[in-house]
Design brief:
By secondary structure, this protein is of the alpha+beta class. The protein contains 4 helices and 9 strands. It has 2 domains: 90 residues, Beta Barrel (OB fold (Dihydrolipoamide Acetyltransferase, E2P)); 118 residues, Helix Hairpins (Orthogonal Bundle), CATH 1.10.287.
Amino acid sequence: MERTRGMMRKAGRAVAVLLPLAIGAAVLVWAAKEQAPLALREPEETATSVRVQPIEPVDFRPAVSAFGTVEPLSIWRAVAEVAGSVEYFDPELRAGRLVDRSSLIIRLDQTDHRLAEARSLAEIEAIEARLEELEIRARNLDALLEIQRRTLALAAIEYECQRVLLEREAVSEIAVDAAEEALQQRRTRVQELDNERRLVPAQRRLEQAERAAARARLAEARRNIERTPVTMPFDGRIADGLIVSWPPFPWTSICRRMIEDGWFRDAAAREERRG
């Protein structure tokens, strides 16, 4: 009996605990079914008051005002390298104008330099012809000298024969003298040809030196032709005006024109960069 009562007390306590839990769960399920679905709301923008100022496009030139010493980054002074009259001069070349790099500014007359080039070419051709003639002459002298040496040997033999015959009184002294004279003439001719042949190398060196000088004059003439056009070495600005006249005028009248780089820097800023 006591055991049965204990079991009943335990069952009663379990029912007392589980029954409220079951009732609470049933109430939650019923409330979830009866509750209406939540409606989603769109986020609303927050309006901010602003002031609007319309801007119209306008043309303007930026300018900077400052105090200090400024210098161009690059300066080019045109110096006369060749002589000649000006054949072409840029009419727009004036103070303040911006000039692009490699732009043709001035072109000098090339006539005198072209003539100098033609003269140098003619001199070189003449020297080449003389050198060729000298080589032919050297070969002819060699052949002629060989012939004269053989003739000299024969004249020497003839002279010895005449002397032997004179000792035997077979010929007169006149014949011996004639043979000796012929021998001396052959010796003189051989000596002349030999001297002339020895001069050929010296004459060749002289012609070669003259050819080198003519080639140097040709190179100078062509270099002067290349110097006749004057072009801008960089993008720059004309610093001062050109006081010149037209038609053609000597190049020396414009040999001191300054062309500056188009950008300037404050001298103090440049010293700061150096520091």
